[in-house]
TrEMBL record:
Protein name: Uncharacterized protein
SUPFAM superfamilies (alphabetical): TM1631-like
Superkingdom, taxonomy of origin: Bacteria
Pfam family, one: DUF72
InterPro entries associated with the record: DUF72, UPF0759_sf
């Protein structure tokens, strides 16, 4: 059986303050507060710009032993370069301090733009450029595609051949959802039950996701991140799913 970890996509949101985060909690304590209530968090600031080694070290120190920090790959690679000629940008990304996370380093998420369609040769070059270690720490990669051209046996088999995990993306009909196991990681991003980035997940829906997670854990490690942060539902839904999985 694989392990199942549940958390949120990011943690620094104004709408959480005074609600999930109690009034008066200083901002530098927010990650620690969240980390006491979930198993993992997705670092998404790394998507927008290269982070500093001191930041990765600070996040590692703010979380308890056994916690895992997933890292979102840079949009310069996925959205601006669109995976073309990215060997040097990938090297810079992984040289920016991810090794400071040490044993807390989780999967690295590569989120593709919705306008990027499947190209076998392009993806082969990209997969080959991804490192499998940062310093002495192993790295596992997952791909969140947003075009239906990836929902084919060819694309999924290529992911299996390169040991790339398929992201299960729940996005109220906005992007395709492929529930395929293509590596030893199943990575789930829950973007909203009925409204993208905003709506919470009903109890019955959390029950269903818990059952899916148990099934995937029979053959892989499972990481689940709630991205419905606009109205502050993400941490509550994460705790709700986590509680169900512990029953």
């Amino acid at each position: 059986m694989g392990e199942i970890r549940v958390g949120t996509s990011g943690w620094s949101y104004p709408s959480w303050r005074g609600d999930f985060y109690p009034p008066g909690l200083v901002q530098r304590r927010e990650l620690s507060y969240l980390a006491e209530r979930v198993d993992s968090v997705e670092i998404n600031g790394s998507f927008y710009s290269l982070q500093r080694p001191t930041s990765y070290r600070k996040w590692r120190e703010a979380t308890p032993d056994g916690f895992v920090l997933a890292v979102k790959g840079g949009r310069f690679i996925t959205h601006l370069k669109r995976l073309r000629e990215v060997a040097d940008p990938i090297a810079r990304f992984f040289g920016s301090g991810l090794d400071e996370l040490g044993p807390k380093l989780g999967p690295v998420l590569w989120q593709l733009p919705a306008t990027l369609t499947y190209d076998r040769a392009l993806l082969a070059d990209f997969y080959d450029a991804l490192p499998r270690k940062v310093g002495t720490w192993p790295v596992r990669h997952v791909l969140e595609f947003r075009d239906a051209s990836f929902c084919t046996d060819e694309a999924l088999d290529q992911m299996r051949a390169h040991d790339i995990g398929c992201v299960v993306s729940d996005s109220p009909g906005t992007w395709p959802r492929a529930e395929a196991v293509t590596s030893d990681v199943v990575y789930v991003r829950l973007h909203g039950h009925t409204e993208l980035y905003a709506s919470g997940y009903a109890p019955a829906s959390l029950d269903q996701w818990a059952e899916r997670c148990r099934g995937w854990a029979e053959e892989a490690d499972v990481y689940v991140y709630f991205d419905n942060d606009a109205r502050g539902r993400a941490p509550y839904d994460a705790m709700g799913l986590r509680a169900r999985l512990r029953q």
